[in-house]
Design a protein that fits this description.
- The structure holds two protein chains of two kinds.
- Chain A is 65% helix and 0% strand.
- By secondary structure, chain A is mainly alpha-helical.
- Chain A has one domain.
- Chain B has a domain of 177 residues.
- In chain B, the strands form two sheets. In chain B, strands 3, 4, 6, 7, 9, 10, 12, 15, 16 and 17 form a ten-stranded mixed β-sheet that branches.
- Classes of the chains: A mainly alpha, B mainly beta.
- Chain B: UreD, UreF and UreG form a complex that acts as a GTP-hydrolysis-dependent molecular chaperone, activating the urease apoprotein by helping to assemble the nickel containing metallocenter of UreC. The UreE protein probably delivers the nickel.
Chain lengths: 221, 255
């Protein structure tokens, strides 16, 4: 399983609701972001939110190997670093899908039963950390998977929101490889929930609040 | 650094913190247990109010230069209420390759309340400031904080600032932020600040203020709320945040 699992985690066909998420692209486009600026948005997210989420997932995976499993400290740290309510809500909605899948695969796994005890419901990175434990995915593969998933989510949402040459999306992702590698390294170096990075992107938060008030939208965030 | 180095004739060491400690005695009277001028700020009591202590943080130096380390320690005792006022903003000047620091440590005991009406902090071209704010709130404690960072004086791209805030309420992290505006190339990315140069916020910790909804209000994961605005210039945003600060200050009930 460990060989296929990293691919499964980052596959757009993974049935956990990721198609409802644009990783901030739809709110950014509504605020005027153009197709030419998508690579800059990728960099902005790789410098801020992606570091926090990736590091949180890695911490949740490590917590999943402890006895007993307690996801609460990481979940709490992540929530305190996600001050924008609609972004927490979107993360919890996506986390629900991941949690459901983890339950289907290993209902009795201690990392999965520990997810059910979280109130409020597990945020997506916490659920992904637990799922990685179920699938026997290592920290580094998980971190790469989360970063890659973020980039692919934006790139594929761009096909709907700012249509253009589909080959561009591969070029965008290849171009930010150094930044992606830096995120993985920073995330793996985090040892405790207190040390979880918290770099704030003010406009991404502002756009999320604007998006939340809109009635016509394709993606939940 | 030129100009007077301390208020009231007291010599202050370069890294000496300004200290404000306020208590409320059994009869409900507010007492300043400690008002110590630091190297940069002198706390001055304002006209007494029956239900709170009001203190002005008066700047005693021109602003921050390379090597400066401004420290501020605020303590609010059980059930006490402190209002901090800043008569003027702060400017960090060109550090010519150096760096400066601004650090505040705030402790609010059970039932205590701090209202801090911070004035704009201008980070001029060439400045490099590390700002940290650490807030510890006991159960039932609360804080209202207004805070504005301005990158550059008019016409400037602005210096570098990294503003970190960590608020812990009842032993749990409530808000942790790292506004890293150090690298102009990164902070001008879409989603971070883009073309904006001013970041202002009003943050309520320990309480979720009632009142009419603000389009940029977010409720924190715990008891707290924040409105953060970004803009290319300060004036309009300041009016909006001033009104919000007053509303939240008066609508969150008696301290």
């Amino acid at each position: 399983m460990a060989r296929l699992a990293p691919f499964l985690l980052t596959d757009g066909r993974f049935p956990v609701g990721a198609h409802t998420y644009s990783a901030g692209l739809e709110p950014a486009v509504a605020a005027g972001l153009t197709r030419a600026r998508i690579p800059a948005l990728l960099k902005a997210r790789l410098h801020t939110t992606v570091v926090t989420e990736t590091a949180a997932a890695v911490l949740a995976l490590r917590a999943s190997h402890h006895d007993p499993v307690d996801h609460e400290p990481v979940q709490q740290a992540l929530a305190a670093r996600t001050p924008t309510a609609p972004l927490r809500d979107a993360s919890a909605a996506l986390g629900r899908g991941v949690h459901r899948l983890a339950r289907r695969l290993a209902p009795d796994h201690p990392a999965v039963t520990a997810l059910a005890r979280l109130r409020p419901r597990p945020l997506r990175p916490i659920a992904l950390g637990a799922l990685a434990a179920v699938l026997d995915v290592g920290e580094e593969a998980l971190a790469h998977g989360i970063v890659y998933d973020e980039l692919q989510t934006i790139a594929s949402a761009a096909l709907k929101l700012l249509p253009g040459d589909p080959l561009d999306s591969v070029a965008w992702i290849v171009a930010v490889e150094p930044e992606a590698a830096a995120v993985v390294a920073e995330a793996l170096a985090v040892r405790t929930p207190t040390d979880l990075p918290a770099r704030t992107p003010p406009l991404i938060e502002r756009w999320a609040l604007e998006h939340d008030r809109r009635e016509r939208r394709l993606f939940l965030a | 650094m030129s100009g007077p180095t301390a208020a009231g004739g007291q010599a202050a060491e370069p890294h000496h913190p300004a200290v404000v400690a306020v208590e409320r005695d059994a009869s409900g009277r507010h007492l300043a247990r400690e008002l110590t001028p630091g190297a940069f700020l002198a706390p001055r009591p304002l006209l007494p109010c029956p239900d709170r202590m009001r203190i002005a943080l008066v700047g005693t130096r021109a602003g921050l230069l390379a090597g400066d380390d401004l420290r501020l320690h605020i303590t609010v005792g059980p059930g006490a209420r402190l209002e901090l006022v800043e008569p003027s903003g702060l400017v960090a000047y060109d550090h010519r390759g150096g760096a400066s620091a601004w650090r505040a440590v705030v402790h609010i005991a059970a039932g205590g309340r701090l209202d801090w009406d911070g004035q704009p902090f201008v980070i001029a071209h060439g400045a490099r400031v590390d700002r940290t704010t650490e807030v510890t709130l006991a159960p039932g404690a609360r804080m209202l904080w207004r805070d504005t960072l301005v990158l550059g004086r008019s016409g400037e791209r602005g210096g570098a600032v990294r503003a970190r805030t960590r608020a812990v309420h009842d032993g749990r992290e409530l808000l942790v932020e790292d506004l890293d505006l150090t690298d102009p190339g990164l902070r001008e990315l879409p989603g971070v600040l883009g073309p904006n140069r001013v970041v202002g916020s009003v943050t309520a910790l320990g309480v979720r203020p009632p009142g009419p909804p603000h389009p940029y209000r977010t409720d924190l994961a715990g008891p707290g709320a924040q409105v953060r605005l970004v803009d290319t210039g300060a004036p309009e945003m300041e009016a909006d945040l001033s009104a919000l600060y007053e509303r939240w200050r008066t609508e969150t009930g008696p301290g």
